[in-house]
Amino acid sequence: MEGIAQRIRREGEAMKFTKMVKNKGKYFLNKLAGENKKAFGDAPLDCCSLNKKENH
């Protein structure tokens, strides 16, 4: 019976680690999305208009 309890504990620790990695990944992607929104705005990116000034 002791082996079962140890395995359950190990699985619980693995699940906590997986959840932590997932949360850190979500945090990183949300932060990246916010920075991209600040840099490029809400409009879809157009490769022809990047790094060019309008000539109107």
Quick rundown:
The chain has one domain (1-51). It contains 1 helix and no strands. It has one helix at 2-40.
What do these coordinates show?
This protein is an all-alpha fold. It has one domain (1-51). It is built from one helix and no strands. The protein has one helix at 2-40. The longest helix has 39 residues, at 2-40. The N and C termini lie far apart (79 Å). The mean pLDDT is 83.
Element layout with pairings:
Blueprint: H1 2-40
What share of the residues lie within helices? Answer: 55-70%
Please give the radius of gyration in angstroms. 23 Å
| Count of distinct strands | 0
Provide the β-strand percentage band.
under 5%
* Unreliably modeled segments: none
Describe the main β-sheet briefly.
none
Overall geometry: rod-shaped
- The number of domains is 1
Number of helices: 1
Quick tags:
rod-shaped; 56 residues; mainly alpha
